[in-house]
């Protein structure tokens, strides 16, 4: 009898703990054949990991703290499925590493996190700013994907309005401006219409006698879902030559603007994507370009799909010169201005 009561008590305590906290293991594995042409060294065919989306292994969890408050965390590492190496330059949890509190008034997180501008651009881009040929990331936004040393606040969705602000500390002794990153986005959704605005302001970390340089990007975009297809439109203004890694980006202009027109067409288990992007160099340095891309995904299941994509970039700059844009992906730098992708992705 005593053993039975103890067993019941332990079972009850276990159930209570499960109800208060939860940890989820998740990830994605992706690999494809990539054919790139138009590069300085010649054409190349390769097996590449993370083509449609970066392969990853992640852990996320939450704990109910009562009164609508939760403690949350996320640890997510990237990996190259073609070689098994760690992604993001070998950083252990290079994709995300954060802890925070979620309340009725919003969520505050601290750590390595996605930039608000990238999240806004991903929402607009038909290719979801991933790594397939055709991604807007090939031409648009010198603000990067992630911010280190970041405090971020995300407001709760309220009557269709949403938004977040982020501050990344530069952590340079004696110079609070060096390496500092600021970001924000704001959104509104009403029926088939969604609007997103994003902003990033980034300072470099000077080396030696180099002066502090800055980069700034502002983006406004919208999507409209007609049912049979979803149209996308985005406009971005870029100033400065600094990217999110606090290094000079040779393809960025002191003054440029980007324009994207795109469409996504879902049809049963099929999804078709297409976009056209124009980068206008306003500094007169022949660093403009045009990109057009098409993509297709077939979903074998809710978690597994096969994909095809093609993109071409027509550069103003000569091949190999500063300002020559290539069609690459998140794990390998592109070597040409034309690319064909074919691959398989599984989410778990």
TrEMBL record:
InterPro entries: Gram-neg_bact_OMP, Gram_neg_porin_domain, Porin_dom_sf, Porin_Gram-ve, Porin_Neis. Pfam families: Porin_4. Keywords: Cell outer membrane, Ion transport, Membrane, Porin, Signal, Transmembrane, Transmembrane beta strand, Transport. Residues 1-19 form the signal peptide. The keyword Transport applies. GO terms for molecular function: porin activity. GO terms for biological process: monoatomic ion transmembrane transport. Residues 8-317 form the Porin domain. The keyword Membrane applies. It is found in: Cell outer membrane. It comes from the Bacteria. GO terms for cellular component: cell outer membrane; pore complex. It is a multi-pass membrane protein. Homotrimer. PANTHER family: MAJOR OUTER MEMBRANE PROTEIN P.IA, PROTEIN YDDL-RELATED. This is Porin. It comes from Pseudoduganella aquatica. The lineage of its organism: Bacteria, Pseudomonadati, Pseudomonadota, Betaproteobacteria, Burkholderiales.
């Amino acid at each position: 009898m005593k053993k039975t009561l103890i067993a019941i008590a332990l079972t009850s305590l276990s159930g209570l703990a499960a109800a208060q906290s939860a940890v989820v293991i998740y990830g994605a594995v992706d690999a494809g054949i990539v054919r790139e042409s138009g590069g300085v060294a010649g054409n190349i065919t390769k097996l590449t990991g993370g083509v449609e989306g970066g392969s990853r292994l992640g852990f996320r969890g939450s704990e109910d703290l009562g009164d609508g408050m939760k403690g949350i965390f996320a640890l997510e590492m990237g990996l190259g499925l073609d070689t098994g190496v760690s992604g993001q330059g070998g950083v252990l949890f290079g994709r995300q590493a954060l802890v925070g509190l979620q309340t009725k008034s919003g969520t505050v997180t601290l750590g390595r996190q996605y930039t608000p501008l990238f999240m806004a651009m991903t929402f607009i881009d038909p290719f979801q700013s991933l790594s397939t040929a055709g991604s807007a990331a090939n031409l648009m936004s010198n603000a990067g994907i992630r911010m280190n040393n970041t405090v971020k606040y995300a407001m709760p969705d309220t009557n269709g309005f949403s938004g977040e602000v982020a501050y990344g500390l530069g952590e340079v002794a004696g110079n609070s401006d060096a390496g500092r990153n600021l970001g924000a986005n704001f959104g509104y959704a009403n029926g088939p219409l969604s609007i997103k605005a994003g902003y990033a302001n980034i300072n470099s970390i000077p080396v030696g006698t180099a002066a502090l340089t800055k980069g700034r990007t502002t983006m406004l975009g919208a999507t409209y879902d007609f049912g049979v297809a979803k149209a996308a439109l985005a406009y971005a203004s870029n100033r400065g030559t600094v990217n999110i890694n606090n290094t000079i980006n040779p393809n960025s202009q002191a003054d440029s603007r980007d324009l994207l027109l795109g469409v996504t067409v879902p049809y049963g288990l099929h999804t078709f994507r297409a976009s056209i992007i124009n980068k206008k160099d306003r500094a007169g340095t022949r660093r403009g370009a045009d990109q057009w891309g098409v993509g297709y995904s077939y979903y074998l299941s809710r978690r597994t799909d096969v994909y095809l994509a093609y993109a071409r970039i027509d550069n103003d700059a000569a091949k190999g010169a500063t300002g020559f844009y290539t069609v690459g992906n998140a794990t390998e730098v592109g070597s040409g201005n034309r690319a064909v992708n074919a691959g398989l992705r599984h989410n778990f």
